[in-house]
Amino acid sequence: MKVQRQEVLAAFRANPLPLLERYAPGGRVRGQEYVACTPWRQDRNPSLSFNLLKGVGADFAGDWRGDALSLAMRATGYPYPQILEELGQLYGGGVPAPFARQTQPRPSPVQPAVKAAFQPVWPAWTEPQRPHSIRLRGRDGMWHLTKVERFHLYRDADSHPLYATLCARHPDGRKEFRWMCFGRLKSGEAPRWHYKAPPEPRPLYGLHELALRPSAPVLVVEGEQTAETLHLDPDFPYVAVTSPGGAANPHKADWSPLMGCNVTIWPDNDPPGLDYAERVKCLCWKAGALSVAVVNVEGLPTKWDLADSLSAPEFQKGLEVTP
Predict the structure, then answer these.
(1) pTM for this structure?
(2) What is the DSSP annotation of 86-151?
(3) Residue 178: which pLDDT band, with cuts at 50, 70 and 90?
(4) pLDDT in tens, 247-261
(5) Backbone angles phi and psi of 229, in degrees to 5
């Protein structure tokens, strides 16, 4: 039976590797291409490429272009009838099942390296050194060395250090707040103080004062500076506490130490302060406080802060609280 050209080409498309490995040995499949050294020339590097889907190839270091039959004829020097008969014997005279597309498995996408989470160590083993200055990136994209204006250390009930907050001012007058927390950046390393935020929920400021006077009423104020000023007055009847992160983040603090306490909230006299007071009121009730009241700041100067003057008339006026 005479072998037909179309039968050979159909068989080649169904299974091209037997022909290519016979007439261009030593090659390998790269994606949709079979790449090998040119058999009729001593190549140091592969220059013959054959497209497995299109059924055509080329010698990029020479002048050959053609299909599978042309490749076999060029590699052996046989005439067309003889090479057609040889390919018929190679493929057994039949046409195999359709060629399944030979593609290499798609590599899985490269996943970005997962940065190890900061591991806090509480209580801290050492007291932190207050930084005199820190570098802040300004709106111009440049780093500026700025002076630290405020530094507040949070302690647990036993007065052990937990974490700290600090405030620095940009050259243009803007304030920026930073955290300091004791812990590890990766497992196995010795813990130390880092410019990292503590995990939530975060302990309140003033827990060590609350432990010294557990039966005293509690006054929740806005900001560590206010609480610290009140701590310095030995005759002040309340234990002052506050939450970290400013007026916008009372929900990120742990209010459970106020369980069983009589709590009064003194907000700053501005919209953020009044909103802070309402949110803290709900959180204190949820924590199990015995009573919760909010200082009536109506009529006080705008943005007036309790730490401005403990002896001011506004202080006495503010003690008229509303439940």
Answers:
(1) 0.60
(2) HHHHHTTTS--SPPPP--PPPPPPPPPPPPPPPEE-SS-SSPPPPPSEEEEE-TTS-EEEEEEEEE
(3) very high
(4) 889 999 999 999 999
(5) -65, -40
Q: Cβ-count burial of 244 within 10 angstroms (0-12 exposed, 13-18 middle, 19+ buried)?
A: buried
For CA atoms 247, 210, 197, 178, the dihedral sign is positive
Which pLDDT does position 94 carry in this prediction?
47
Please, is 101 exposed, middle or buried when counting C-beta atoms within 10 Å of its C-beta (0-12, 13-18, 19+)? exposed
CA distance 241 to 211: 12
- Average pLDDT of the chain? 83
- Residue 55 — φ and ψ, nearest 5°? 75, 25
Query: For residue 26, what pLDDT is reported?
Result: 85
Q: Is 307 helix (H, G, I), strand (E, B) or coil?
A: helix
Q: Which amino acid is present at 84?
A: L
Cα-based torsion angle of the residue sequence 233, 239, 243, 246 in order, rounded to the nearest 10 degrees: -40
Report the amino acid identity of residue 230.
L
Asked if residue 165 has pLDDT above 80, the reply is yes
What b/e string do you get for 269-307 counting C-beta neighbours within 10 Å, with b at 16 or more?
bbeebbebbebbbebbeebebeebbbbebeebeeebbbb
Which of 34, 30, 8, 15 lies closest to 99, judged by CA? 15
> How many CB atoms are closer than 10 A to CB 94?
10
CA–CA distance from 31 to each of 28, 34, 47, 53, 226 (Å)? Answer: 10, 8, 16, 10, 69
